[in-house]
Amino acid sequence: MKSRVSLRGKLTSEIPTSSMADIAFLLNPPTMDDVLEIAEAGLRMPHNSTYFYPK
After folding, report:
1. How far apart are CA 31 and CA 34, in angstroms?
2. Residue 39 domain-assigned?
3. Residues 14, 24: contact at Cβ < 8 Å?
4. N vs C: which end of the chain shows fewer Cβ within 10 Å?
């Protein structure tokens, strides 16, 4: 089985026509309050979870 992770900002428009995947996970982005709460607790956010737009 081939495995691949893809991070995209506009994925919802590609889901119905994509034959490259069997499943997609659509997650809400963390809020600034989430980031501050985690930072104040001395923890770290997962890789690419703090990509904020617009820059």
Report:
1. 5
2. yes
3. no
4. N
pLDDT tens for each residue of 41-54: 999 888 776 666 66
pTM: 0.47
User: Which amino acid does the sequence have at 11?
Assistant: L
- Residue 42: left if φ>0, alpha if ψ -120 to 50, beta else—which one? left
* CA 6 to each of CA 44, 51, 54: distance values in angstroms, whole numbers, following the listed order: 21, 14, 20
Domain count, the chain: 1
Task: Give the length of the chain.
Answer: 55
Residue 29 lies in a domain: yes
Residue 50 counted as domain residue: yes
Find the domain containing 48 and state its range: 6-55
Residue 1 belongs to some domain of the structure: no
